[in-house]
Amino acid sequence: MLAAGEIPPTTTERIRPQVVSLLDPNLETASVCLSVGYGARLDPQGRCGVAHLLEHLLFSLPKPGRPSFAEWVERRGGTTNAETGLETMLFYAQVAAEDAQETTAMMLDAVLDPVFDERVFELEREVVVKEMVTAAADPADVVQDVVFEKLFPGHPIGRPIGGRIDELRTLTSADVEKEYRARFLTGPMALVVVGPRPVDGIDDLLGTFPDPGTGSPFAPALPLPAADLTPPGPAGPDFAWTCFAGRSPALDGAGKEAYTVLSMLLGSSPSSLLYRKLRVEEALSYAFESWSRFYTEAGVWRLLVGVEPEAVGRLTEIVDGLLTDLAEGRVPDEEFAVAKRKAEMRLVTQGETPVERARLTALGIRGGTTDWSLDQARAALRAVTPTQVSHAAATLRGNLTIAVRPEAA
């Protein structure tokens, strides 16, 4: 078991799933997070939503003589959650420190040795369908699915993480269990614990489950398609969610942190260039955010802004103008320094919340296939130069995809 702050080993001899313990004797809770290298991009053709539905099921399925893991944790005063991404699935819980060992055992049992139940499956499938129906009614959600499809037409990265409603409705328990055994259980895994002391017996407990995979299951199988740069149609009559997006470097690509800093320069903080333009100078928008995510073949930088329909044109001019200023070096170096500091402090404040520290670490190590620590991430952000951010801005400006929802009838 690793000590606090220790870098995970990279040899193939390490224990599988990898265990990372981050210890703080002042904590009175333990946060446990299991990271699995499996995600929505592996959904079979015609079955978009398998991964999302599986995530729901694993914390909802009861075992003989006891309730589901989610209910079990909540009845002890803890909290629990799970999430599906394109390439990583997370399962996590925060409990009293004295419950850490039993909670870890119960989580691993729920996720790695479930008992599939047809009645629970049908109920949970309906819950997931309702979740996606709700999302489909929210233009802020829909516009992001649209922009992913435009960036990666026909490619697994471009598929909606939550699933497609019509395909979710046709999924069977056998469909999900097949993917669980063939893809989920063979994906790389890592367990992160943030608490006052190590959890006793984890290595012995993990030894009772089959060894997962040892490498990324997302080796590029398809070439990246050309992005669809077609301008969006006119916005609908009431309120327009506009998403600007572009490809950023891959997970292991050089310079990807520059896109994170760029998100701070064009984010929702009062310290950002975009805030000054949209909120202070022109009062065009109250709701906007920017962020970047990185995947095996390419990352995605996004800016999501809500404006009145008649303001979409002016918004596009502002975003293009700021990207141009950044690309052509017309922004003072002080602004880059502020954005870097903001990006680093956002990471620090997340990391000071134990369950978020566990979640961030589990996401970073991607099932144990790569090294990541909060200190490494902070150092990478501090190393970003204005030239790198200018290059990122120029790259985005030349290949920017824009979507608007709702569109005019």
UniProtKB/TrEMBL annotation:
Signal sequence range: none
From which domain of life does this come? Bacteria
Q: Which InterPro entries match?
A: Metalloenz_LuxS/M16, MPP/UQCRC_Complex, Pept_M16_N, Peptidase_M16_C
Positions of the Peptidase M16 N-terminal domain: 19-161
Pfam families cross-referenced by the UniProt entry = Peptidase_M16, Peptidase_M16_C
Q: Name one GO molecular function term.
A: metal ion binding
Which part of the chain is the Peptidase M16 C-terminal domain? 171-341
The entry sums up its family as follows: Belongs to the peptidase M16 family.
Report the PANTHER family cross-referenced here. Answer: METALLOPROTEASE, MITOCHONDRIAL-PROCESSING PEPTIDASE SUBUNIT ALPHA
Q: What is this protein called?
A: Insulinase family protein
Which species does this protein come from? Streptomyces roseirectus
